[in-house]
């Protein structure tokens, strides 16, 4: 069982594209951070070739370990080798202090971030704090001023957290993608346990009772015919009740969509000139609960259409305090014959609601309007998909999301503090400081409150408007401040990449990065200062883009994994419902039929009655086997065996049968589907038709095989056009099941009345 049908191709491309972009962002950020420190060393006055090569040798291994080992998603980091490599990287990161003072402390921040990646949180955070404290001590020891040391310390904390977040999020994208199939398997396994329980509780007891009573009747057949007849009557009743249970369970496992039903309701009511207001609160509900609410909604809307004078209708679904409620209110009045019909139509769904521990009431309210109110408890036990997700070892949990959110908050606040600390290097004017502090505070607040939230729709009018507000907060203070301008243009650059289309986003990013560099050059800054500004803007902009984008992508993939698991469960539920109906329906119908037949012929032909009883026992044992096969997985059926069984059942019902099997070797899936179609068709023949003759034929046709089942039990007579067979729709789930199975193999199933008045069901499947 796989979850591939859910747009798998698109899902497969997205993580690969994400990993490529994440790798590109990580590479640029780390290379820029190291390159700035390296250029600072190489451009020092009096730097000789030997010391220059030494600086390169210090930077190269630390950067290589980070990019080629720690940042590769496919490599496991919970190994001794990874911890040993972290030790080597940390040692190499601090060695340059012996020769170059604080110039290469960007290497120590990378090592600090890697410690969070490699070590468990209990160890990782103390190590991270220790390494950042050591870096801070180096910066303060060699700093020219306390303000400069403060700025550098804040930058070290930011780069350390960003190193961890970017790398961890990129790895998590890969893990979530790789684990999606395993999650689907777990969810299906959970669902199969529920299948087995339902089968055991609802069907096992009934079939066992039939088997036991069949043995008893066989012994009593000659000794006590009266007692045997009573037991046969009980067998017939048990078979009919069990068949009803089969249909009930099959229906219960067919999931209905509450959203789809609400849209259908709006369409139907609007077509009847009824003004509809729908208020569906988005609530996470188990599949059975969603399906039951959809049934209540469908029945409620059907009843609305039975009323006259309906002008307004309100449909609402709300949840709270462990319960969910559906309410349908309208202003119509009933026909004279509607109340009894309405009560009858609501009785079944009311019983089902009560069976789930809920309540359903329908009738006029105090305002004279008709109101249907259904309320159900929401069980604490999660769906199989949710249970499997909770146990998944690498899942994107709420704890993970909270940790990322507070770290993102810390990073953006640090960006703001770093910008504010630079203000004091430029001016001591309180008015200018306030003019800078206000927009910077607003920028950080806007970033955290809106753009950094993973559930915000970024390609929207609101996002475009807030991006414009962000641009104003960044650039408008430049007019009164001039060269004293300090802001966070990198926030706008990174956010523009997220919000705008790619070409516009990169154009805005490039223009935003170039602006501060040109301002620095215009104010007389040298090459190193200009490069510092450029590298800082590029790095910070890419950090903003990478952190928010990867957080959003991980959140989306986490939801996608859950949806994939839900799809896998839904497909398994549908498979279960089909197999349950197709495999057991005919067996139970045949048991009931043969029980009645045996009861009729007991006094006439004891030997034949004994034979029929033996067949009942055989059918019962086969049904018990089918119960186990449905619960455990797909079952391969024998087409020849099913054809002989169908012939025996029809013959027992006094139907003349002609059987023609000329199909040759067929693939197992084709044999199984045709066997299921044959079994279900014969069940329908016995249930719905007054049949005297039936023909069953399986023949090769071109590149496929065709199954034809023709009978003369049509009750509605000939079609209106005798020259052309009519394709008809047959009520019930049997035809739908068969059609779905045949279509799943690329075939087609048709059913209709032929010109001679006989009913033909034809299934053609390519081989």
Would you write up a description of this structure?
It contains 24 helices and 13 strands. Helix 10 (258-271) packs parallel to helix 11 (287-304) and helix 20 packs antiparallel against helix 21. The strands form three sheets. A six-stranded mixed β-sheet has the order 8-9-10-13-12-11. Strands 1-3-4-7-6 form a five-stranded mixed β-sheet, with helices on one face. The chain has helices at residues 8-42, 49-70, 80-94, 97-100, 106-118, 121-142, 146-178, 180-223, 225-252, 258-271, 287-304, 338-355, 384-391, 398-426, 430-451, 461-475, 478-481, 489-499, 502-522, 527-601, 606-632, 639-652, 668-688, 733-744; strands at 275-280, 307-308, 312-320, 323-330, 333-334, 359-364, 370-377, 656-662, 693-701, 704-711, 726-727, 748-753, 759-766. The relative contact order is 0.08. By secondary structure, the chain is an alpha+beta fold. The radius of gyration is 37 Å and the shape is elongated. Mean pLDDT is 76; it is low at 1-12, 388-396 and 715-733. A hairpin with a 2-residue loop joins strand 9 (693-701) and strand 10.
């Amino acid at each position: 069982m796989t979850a591939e049908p859910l747009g798998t191709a698109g899902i497969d491309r997205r993580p690969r594209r994400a990993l490529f972009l994440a790798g590109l962002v990580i590479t640029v950020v780390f290379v820029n951070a190291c390159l700035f420190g390296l250029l600072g060393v190489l451009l020092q006055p009096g730097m000789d070739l030997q010391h220059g090569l030494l600086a390169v040798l210090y930077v190269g291994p630390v950067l290589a370990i980070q990019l080629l080992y720690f940042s590769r998603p496919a490599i496991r980091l919970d190994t001794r080798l990874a911890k040993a490599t972290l030790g080597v990287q940390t040692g190499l990161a601090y060695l340059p202090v012996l020769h170059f003072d604080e110039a290469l402390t960007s290497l120590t921040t990378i090592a600090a971030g890697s410690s969070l990646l490699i070590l468990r949180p209990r160890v990782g955070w103390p190590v991270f704090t220790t390494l950042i404290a050591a870096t801070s001590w180096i910066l303060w020891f060699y700093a020219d001023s306390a303000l400069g040391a403060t700025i550098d310390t804040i930058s070290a904390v930011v780069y350390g957290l960003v190193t961890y977040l970017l790398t961890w999020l990129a790895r998590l994208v890969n893990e979530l993608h790789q684990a999606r199939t395993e999650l689907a398997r777990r969810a299906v396994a959970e669902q199969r346990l529920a299948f087995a329980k339902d089968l055991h509780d609802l069907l096992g007891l009934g079939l066992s009772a039939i088997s036991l009573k069949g043995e008893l009747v066989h012994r009593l057949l000659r000794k006590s015919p009266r007692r045997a007849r009573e037991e046969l009557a009980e067998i017939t009743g048990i078979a009919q009740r069990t068949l009803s249970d089969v249909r009930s369970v099959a229906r219960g496992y067919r999931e209905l969509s509450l959203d789809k039903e609400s849209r259908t309701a709006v369409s139907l009511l609007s077509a009847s000139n009824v003004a509809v207001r729908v208020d569906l609160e988005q609530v996470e509900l188990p599949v059975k609960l969603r399906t039951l609410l959809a049934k209540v909604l469908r029945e409620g809307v059907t009843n609305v259409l039975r009323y006259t004078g309906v002008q307004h209708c309100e449909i609402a679904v709300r949840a709270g305090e462990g319960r969910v409620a559906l309410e349908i209110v309208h202003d119509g009045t009933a026909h004279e014959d509607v109340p009894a019909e309405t009560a009858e139509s609501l009785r079944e769904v009311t019983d089902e609601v009560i069976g789930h521990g809920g309540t359903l009431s329908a009738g006029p309210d105090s305002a004279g309007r008709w109101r249907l109110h259904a309320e159900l408890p929401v069980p604490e036990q999660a769906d199989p998909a949710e249970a499997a997700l909770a146990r998944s070892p690498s899942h994107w949990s709420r704890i993970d999301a909270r940790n990322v959110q507070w770290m993102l908050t810390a990073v953006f606040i640090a960006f703001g503090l770093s910008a504010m600390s630079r203000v004091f290097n430029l001016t001591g004017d309180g008015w200018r400081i306030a003019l800078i502090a206000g927009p910077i505070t607003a920028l950080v607040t806007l970033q955290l409150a809106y753009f950094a939230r993973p559930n915000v729709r970024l390609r929207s009018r609101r996002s475009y408007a807030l991006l414009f507000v962000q641009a104003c907060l960044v650039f408008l203070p430049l007019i009164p401040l001039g060269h004293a301008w300090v802001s966070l243009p990198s926030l706008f650059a990174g956010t523009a990449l997220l919000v705008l289309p790619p070409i516009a986003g990169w154009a805005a990013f490039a223009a935003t990065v170039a602006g501060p560099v040109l301002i620095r050059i215009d104010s007389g800054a040298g090459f190193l200062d200009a490069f510092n500004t450029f590298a800082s803007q590029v790095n910070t902009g890419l950090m903003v883009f990478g952190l928010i984008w990867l957080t959003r992508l991980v959140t989306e993939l986490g939801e996608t994994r859950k949806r994939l698991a839900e799809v896998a469960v839904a497909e398994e539920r549908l498979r279960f419902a089909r197999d349950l109906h197709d495999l057991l329906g005919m067996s139970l119908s045949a048991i009931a039929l043969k029980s009645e037949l045996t009861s009729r012929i007991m006094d006439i032909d004891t030997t034949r009655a004994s034979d029929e009883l033996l067949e009942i026992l055989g059918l019962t044992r086969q049904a018990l086997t089918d119960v186990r096969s449905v619960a455990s997985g797909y079952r391969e059926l024998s087409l020849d065996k099913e054809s002989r069984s169908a012939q025996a059942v029809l013959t027992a019902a006094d139907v003349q049968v002609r059987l023609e099997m000329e199909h040759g070797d067929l693939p197992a899936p084709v044999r199984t589907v045709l066997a299921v179609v044959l079994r279900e068709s014969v069940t329908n023949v016995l249930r719905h038709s007054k049949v005297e003759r039936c023909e069953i034929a399986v023949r090769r046709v071109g590149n496929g095989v065709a199954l034809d089942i023709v009978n003369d039990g049509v009750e509605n007579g000939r079609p209106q056009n005798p020259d052309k067979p009519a394709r008809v729709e047959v009520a019930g789930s049997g035809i739908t099941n068969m059609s779905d199975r045949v279509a799943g193999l690329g075939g087609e199933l048709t059913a209709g009345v032929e010109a001679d008045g006989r009913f033909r069901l034809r299934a053609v499947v390519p081989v």
